[in-house]
Design a protein that fits this description.
The protein is mostly helical. It is built from ten helices and no strands.
Length: 255
């Protein structure tokens, strides 16, 4: 419950998916990385549902684009699950550590773009290049989500801005809806082809406690986000992600 509350708080505070936070927390609790990846997707399913509803109420969801992203992601989820099951824990840990560097870079870009864009909502273009961008975004998000147990929002938001002409808030809302369906399919795949069935059998009560606490923590983190200075949040996020990167690297050495 404490891990779920902390992950939800940090997710709402920094505006990232819970997976980058939940997986390391589960490892600290002694759960194997292969179990942690599948369990993280269960957590993300609940967190993304809550966040999607909030963004829907704010008019930030472009449903046709979310559908395209989700359908494209379904094509790579199975590949991510099979890779995750086949890779040794050491390799998966090192890849997760490298993923943290990508998170920092994309978060910095997202922050830069949010400062340049206006808050005026506009419908994103749905011409051929934009649709190609949506498909590419979905393919990447599906692979990352199922392989690492992350939502993929940190990848989707910048890609939607760069290749599909989305505003930051629209990209965040649309990606969250996509994350819900990506996580749902990823859970099914991990349950039948991965180790999620065994993970839930051994940790069903902690999983429920973590998901429930995360639902409470995320709005609290979002409230703190509005109260704290943006520069402090950015620096804190960078430091936090770098700490996760170092932890996952040393976890890989001991795996």
């Amino acid at each position: 419950a404490g891990s779920g509350l902390g992950a939800g708080l940090l997710s709402g505070l920094f505006g990232v998916g819970g997976g980058t936070l939940v997986v390391p927390l589960l490892l600290i609790l002694g759960i194997s990385i292969h179990h942690a990846v599948g369990m993280s997707l269960v957590y993300i399913l609940f967190a993304s549902a809550s966040g999607s509803y909030k963004h829907y109420r704010q008019g930030n969801v472009h449903f046709s684009s979310a559908l395209i992203i989700s359908l494209a992601a379904f094509c790579t989820i199975f590949l991510g699950v099979k890779l995750g099951v086949a890779l040794p824990a050491k390799v998966l840990s090192y890849l997760f550590s490298a993923l943290m560097l990508l998170v920092v870079g994309l978060f910095a870009y997202r922050t830069h773009m949010s400062q340049k864009q206006s808050d005026t909502p506009e419908d994103p273009p749905l011409d051929a290049p934009a649709k190609a961008g949506l498909i590419g975004t979905g393919l990447v998000a599906g692979l990352f989500s199922s392989l690492f147990g992350v939502g993929g929002g940190f990848v989707m938001v910048p890609l939607l801005v760069i290749f599909s002409g989305f505003k930051i808030k629209q990209a965040a809302g649309t990606s969250l809806v996509s994350i819900f369906f990506i996580a749902l399919v990823g859970i099914v795949q991990h349950y039948y082809f991965g180790s999620l069935k065994a993970a839930l059998a051994a940790n069903i009560i902690p999983m429920i406690a973590m998901a429930g606490a995360g639902i409470v923590g995320a709005p609290l983190g979002a409230w703190c986000n509005q109260k704290l200075p943006a520069r402090l949040l950015q620096k804190s996020f960078m430091l936090f992600i770098l700490c996760i990167m170092v932890y996952m690297f040393f976890y890989g050495q001991s795996a």
